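Weekly structure sync, notes
Attendees: PL (lead), two postdocs, one rotation student
Agenda item 3: pending single-chain targets
PL asked that the sequence for the first pending target be pasted directly into the notes so everyone works from the same version. It is reproduced below exactly as submitted, 81 residues in total.
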Amino acid sequence: MILKKGLQVKIISGKDKGKTGEILEINRKDKKLKIKSINMIKKHLKPTKENKGGIITKENFIHISNVKNIDEKKKRKESDK
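Predicted structure, written out during the meeting:
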């Protein structure tokens, strides 16, 4: 399974099971992905000169084995024609 930034994937296990999203970032060394609005966490930031600080929500990494590529099926159907 080839995964690239921007592909649509479906979550097959975990707290976000059944949801779909777009790949934002890939960490090939640890075999993990960041998917848009999936596996959201809250992070506490300290105020600095540039940054206001506070609590922000952002995407966290999810293991590659917990996702399934959706776009691959569409490409196969088009190539068969």
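Discussion points:
- The longest strand covers residues 20-27.
- The CA atoms of residues 58 and 66 lie 19 Å apart.
Action: rotation student to compare against the earlier draft before next sync.
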